[in-house]
Amino acid sequence: MLLNQFLLLGAVLFCIGVYGVLARRNGVLVLMSVEIILNSVNINLVAFGALNDDVGGAVFALFVIAVAAAEVGIGLAIVLLMYRNRRSIDLSEADMLKG
Amino acid sequence: MGLLILAAEAAPTGPMSVSDANWFLANAWLIPLLPALSFAAILAFGKRMPRRGSELGLVAVGASFLLAVAAAVAWVAHHGAHETAPAVHRSVSWLVSGGVRYDAGILVDGLSVMMLVVVTAVSLLVHVYSTDYVAGDARYTHFFAFLSLFTAAMLFFVLSDNLLQMIVGWELVGVCSFVLIGHWWEAKANSDAALKAFLTNRVGDVGLLVGMSILFFAAGGAFDTLTVNSRIVAGEVSHTALVAASACLLAAVMSKSGQFVLHTWLPDAMAGPTPVSALIHAATMVVAGIFMVARLYPVFWDGMAIASSSVNLLALVGAVTLLFGGLLAFTQNDIKKVLAYSTVSQLGYMVMALGVGAWTAAMFHLFTHAFFKACLFLGSGSVSHAAGGFDMKKNMGGLRRAMPHTYRTFLVATVALMGLPPLAGFWSKDEILAGTGGWGLLGGTGGNGAYTAMLLMGLAGAAVTAAYMTRVIYLTFFGRYRGEGHPHESGPRIVVPLYALAAMAVVAGLFNMPAGFQLWPEAAQERFGHYVEPVAAYFPPIGHATPSWSLAVVSTLVALGGAAAAYRYYFVKVRARSRAEGQSLTELPDGPTAANKLARAGHRVLADKYYFDHLYTGIVAGGVKGPAAKAAYWTNQKVIDAVVDGAGRSAVAAGRAVYDRLDQGVIDNVIIDGAGRVSDSAGESLRGMQTGKVQQYAAILFAAAAVLAGVFIVVVSL
Amino acid sequence: MTGALAAAAADGDLLVAQNVFFVAIAAVMVFSAFRCVTTRNVVHAALWLVLVLAGAAAQFILLGSEFVAVTQVLVYVGAIVVLFLFGIMLTRASMGDDETASGEKRVMAAVVAVLLGLVTGGALIESFSDTRLVINEPQPTSLVSDAIFSQYIIAFEAVSVLLLAALIGAIVVARKD
User: Fold this and answer.
1) What is the pTM of this model?
2) Is B691 in the A-facing interface, judged by CB distances under 8 Å?
3) Element holding B452 (H helix, E strand)
4) Which residue of C109, C119, C150 is in closest CB contact with B713?
5) Rg of chain A over all Cα atoms, to the nearest angstrom
6) Which of B108, B192, B481, B616 lies in disulfide reach of B88, CB 3.0 to 4.6 Å?
7) What is the pLDDT of residues B623-654, one digit of tens each?
8) Domain for residue A86, yes or no?
9) What share of chain C is helix, strand, coil (3-state, %, to 5)?
10) Is residue B175 part of a domain?
11) Structural domain count, chain A
12) Is B558 exposed, middle or buried (0-12, 13-18, 19+ CB in 10 A)?
């Protein structure tokens, strides 16, 4: 196997995730896209770990999984709060920061 | 609880052999553990206890106090048995990561044992005091829980054997301070004060973190205090790194110990309950900074070049603080704020002492100050308890008859704070003054260089201290009662701690009679310094100043002078005026400060005594004054006014011309309006980007990252 | 991906099975991910996400990191997706369709994504086009655990605190007061 097949897979997933983050309007769907991004990063980490025969890649992939769990927890809590306050989770309506 | 029983059984056993002694030193970790356990216990089931948790705290701190005293006795025995008095150091490896060991342990030497005794003693008395003072409070249990936690954290801090542990303890005491200042958080002022204390301390904490990190790397990757110190003393650490580290750590000291510039939180911290002010913001926590300097003294010794300079930052900060803090105390009417500024000032003495190399003097002052300042604070609490407020001018006055016990103990502590012999403050303050080495002319040499400026500021500070404390005494205890309540003496649980602390304020000085003091047996001289100051490879070779009679006399006279000036103003003048007017005055209506009054009084004495003064002021000056004044008036009206008027008229004319032509025509139309138009249109076009839509920002972010990465790749591959 | 196969074949250790699996799983993952970010049904999106995550777990097994793969299934597929489904239910707003994003926004997102893809893809091909990955045997879990609890203990502690903070934060943010 080549290293690049995993890395390119990761890159493609990353781009799809970015597309999702930018194009989706539903807060929950944006969070899902973020998960895709994190997974692509994990594939990279594990692939490089396997390349160097180093356990660090796997360890940090695990850490990323843990952080992702925390991120989803907080993210969904924020989305929930937003829903409760505005009865909508449409991110394009959340534009109170506009200048 | 099992530990408690063990301690109770072990403490009273007869004379201690070294092996017995070592048990107390080696197991000093029990001392912080007990209050920590009591914290958990009070939180868990304090509310269900008959005394709502306070008994748990009392028992734990009491046991800690016994253990601390036993450890002190053991240390004396241990020290007697060893020439160089090695510190008792025990640690366990918490974890090893990346080749660095993270230990947790205890470092027991004279310094930490002294701190253990001070902290547990004051804490115990404050606990007793609080059972009465805070009685009936809605968060009584909570209060005792945090007193316990604070005690545990402070003890943990002073016992810590490595830099990381110190940081942990440092932050823990900060949190407890925050919680306890805001104990009555319903009032906005209190929670503001708590936040201010916390945030001001964060400023210093950044310095602490950075400083400790620099130390860690400079000392070759060791957190262990003994190792770090030894390497510095052995000259293995670069001077530049130590300069940086000591400067950063100084920021931490300035915030925690209320030194000038970062001292502002300390007076506000008096919003907390008075026992907290006594324990945390006078006797123990605020000296954490001092302790840190003392513990890491080689860092400052080398970094601040203490032995080889006549002024260094540490000494300067301390000296400025002691003077300014003292002067600020004059202007306060809240008794606790006066004491707070006094604390700032006294902490300044300690920092200055450390800065001039008088390590032992600083520690001794820390020791004595803890007792008399805690006594003063608790006394002020007792007074306010009776008088119903802290404002000396509104709520107090004439309380000495109503509260004889409080008055007596307060007076004793005041005299100790003023530094009058033979009370504790005199011995420690005089040692600091001698330690400046600025008294070279009249003996008192052998310090670490001639810090004459520090000596003078220290003397000035002594006079100021004596003066403002005299003011406090008058306003609080003399005159007539100005409040509206019915003052009464506080209960025994308040009075007994006051007497205990006042007793310590009397005798604490005896622990460190100066070497060569003819009136004291030689074997009992300098005991404090002998046992507390490390004689080991982890301590720099500091010089010891020889105290001198001349300096002692001068400093006493200076303090008496300050007291006398204030006495003359308050006890003589204000009192006489009060009697004459039939009301209890706090100030003379026409004499704003004691200093001015003193100057005027001195002038009058001179005027009364010398006929020549009348001649000069009345006849010569009066004769000259009249014609000269007339001439001046004429010049003013005719000559100067004409010039001014002319200048004014021409200026107006010129101004109008400039306004019409230049301002309106060129600048407004072209430059100002043009700039406005440009920025307006730029704003309009840029405004499109500022949509407030998060995803659009994210798109810009990703696109920019992609472009930059592309540029980077191209640049690298070229 | 045929290039990868050809390169492996040229070296004489043709691991047909591994490469076939890789290509199959990768194709499923890319397709699912694409559907996940384009489908209009929110619940379907979550289910497509499951496929992506499971595919990632399969890739981890191919890479010899069994423990990471198992954790991936447990945490992601088991917990996080369920969390998402709960989130979808609690926010009721659009059980069904995600309102169509405006065309402009999609174009913008697509441009950015393609730009990113070009940059990263180009960089990868330039740097690693002939780096070979030899996986002899799966990584023992004991190695991972040893590393976590010795070499990376600080990171581990930091993550633990982060999780605690997230726990408290989520409760504080989402509770009704």
Assistant:
1) 0.66
2) yes
3) helix B452-477
4) C119
5) 17
6) B108
7) 545 555 566 565 655 665 666 666 666 666 66
8) yes
9) 75, 0, 20
10) no
11) 1
12) buried
